[in-house]
Amino acid sequence: MPEAATAPAARATIGDSEFDRDTALTRRAPGVYAIALSAGWTIISAVNGGYLLAVLGRALADALPHADPFTISAHYLTASQPGPAVVRTDVVRTGRTLSTGQASLFQYDDEGREVERIRVLASYGDLDTLPDDVRTTARPPAIPPLEDCFGPEDGPAPVDGSSAITDRLMLKLDPSTLGWALGQPSGKGEMRAWFGLKDGRDPDPLSLLLAVDALPPTAFEIGLKGWVPTVELTVHVRCRPAPGPLRVSITTRNLAGGFLEEDAEVWDSADRLVAQSRQLARVRLG
Amino acid sequence: MPEAATAPAARATIGDSEFDRDTALTRRAPGVYAIALSAGWTIISAVNGGYLLAVLGRALADALPHADPFTISAHYLTASQPGPAVVRTDVVRTGRTLSTGQASLFQYDDEGREVERIRVLASYGDLDTLPDDVRTTARPPAIPPLEDCFGPEDGPAPVDGSSAITDRLMLKLDPSTLGWALGQPSGKGEMRAWFGLKDGRDPDPLSLLLAVDALPPTAFEIGLKGWVPTVELTVHVRCRPAPGPLRVSITTRNLAGGFLEEDAEVWDSADRLVAQSRQLARVRLG
């Protein structure tokens, strides 16, 4: 086969990828980090909550003696914007196998005052030291092979507003959770997709924080429209993911009183349940 | 029917009950509360994590302009003991419908220094202002009627160590999740029970924080023994519970690497899914 006129771009790697560049922070002082939040991870014109969690997660990985988030909870206070931001971290406790830390992301208002966007509480450990004992009874989601699933590039843009994040993700939705994009929501609070980063970077514990919040809202399949802002998101990272695409399965079972929960499971190519999350989100009814 | 020689004790009420007395705090200064942690809510000699969460939850209900926890996450740092404790709260943000706060519980070491036991991040609202729109698709657990379930008082004490909490709870376990107490664990990570407070106090949003962590560990039914300490616990309170007993159903599906998750659902007498929680806990393997 003749060589292409221009060599294809090398596949991105963990540490050298869009995701790594856009979540990289500069340490200004102990516990103080600066970042310019990228405009590249917006969904319906809002900076994606999972991207923001990964930014905070990366700061805590630097601030704590342990590198991997085990359990991380974020409360989303005000809407973040692309542009300058500061992350401040506090070490709460350091232990032999677990350390706990807190982090806040701030931006600036028109008067230059700091406004807190997100506050996070998290416990970190070392995933590589966990014993191999795996007794998971949960099973991977029933999702068709990747080649039988569909991404935003396979159809017209179904939602108004900028969704730059779709340019950075390999996202292929299960056709049975795609009805909303065709004006025929299933009525079931489910969303399933194959997930990866478009530049080919393999998953790692920090990109799992993005993966749990990167799918369209289950609310769309329930027939609700509009933004479904996250109030709080807790992620358990249980295993370092194997290389290759992830499968993400999200379920909502308790839409009530103007709120809903989204439970996400993330499965890697080795059929491990590598992350579980639950978020509480607000819905606009009617 | 002749009158009893002594009148039966009046049934406790929300505000006047063991639970209220044992979670009551004294405000020493803005954001500073004192409490003597009760020895009455221990399980396997450890102060129950849900009782501790309720203590912190009550402090935040006082500190914040909104009274009801909507989503509350706790990281358990060091083991609490009955006795003097201080809770310090910080208001993170106040909004029209939601406010966010942080709280820490401290006790004192032998040199009188403060040691942080638990740190909490929570968002509060007003459950009574939520719209009536209920589209919950989850269904209540399949649990036999209360009279066909069994509590600790119905058999010999199956676990060593003081479990004073059992004197304060009405806890009736589903027989199909009781095998562990008879030396025949089912092997399934499930635990179900009817739950109430023994003095008859009806449930409320704060007692839901206790309810999600008051059952025996699912690990017992998986055949594991010993303490299963909670690393982190997040509770969503979705509805003010109706009076009467609650049904609590807990599931573990991801026991792996020395950790497990416990997902709890709490259903009230009106068949509402009033609370959902997930905790990450450590297990001792083999």
From TrEMBL, chains A, B:
A Pfam family per the record: 4HBT_3
Gene3D superfamilies from the UniProt entry: Acyl-CoA thioesterase, double hotdog domain
Residue ranges annotated for the Acyl-CoA thioesterase-like C-terminal domain, each copy included: 159-283
Residue ranges of domain Acyl-CoA thioesterase-like N-terminal HotDog in the record: 38-123
Disordered: annotated span: 133-153
The protein's name in its UniProt record: TesB-like acyl-CoA thioesterase 3
Organism: Streptomyces variegatus
